[in-house]
Amino acid sequence: MILENGIKAPQFTQLNQSGNDISLSDYEGKKVVLYFYPKDNTPGCTIQANDFTKLNDEFSNSNAVVLGVSKDSIKSHEKFCNKFSLTIDLISDEDTRIIESYGVWQEKKLYGRVYMGIVRSTYLIDEKGFIENSWTKVKSKGHAEEVLEFIKNR
Fold it and tell me: Looking at the annotation, which residues are catalytic?
């Protein structure tokens, strides 16, 4: 189940596309846009990653950092970042610890097939580590702009 606004965000430490540890606690004092996406190099995920990259300076100017999370490997994230010149950190969560702790690992259906997967979702975590807002079943196009506007209007 998706986490409620106002609760403490689950802590994590995992590796990014460069093999560096990324911990939520590293960003205390900043807002964190934590977005979950199904798979590197797929059309919707590429749109979303490119849009967050294009707006990365504006997020930074709003005291926010953008972190993407999927089950993809570090190597996959590295290739994805290099291919599209992404400037955001992508976290590898192959064992789904972060994905499950944020409630976005859910049953999905496609053409009658039922399987477990990531529901495209985003959490905005405030400077003290509490969930400020969430977006579920996100549409890729325009989502980065929507999150940025939300932050700017707070």
Answer: 45
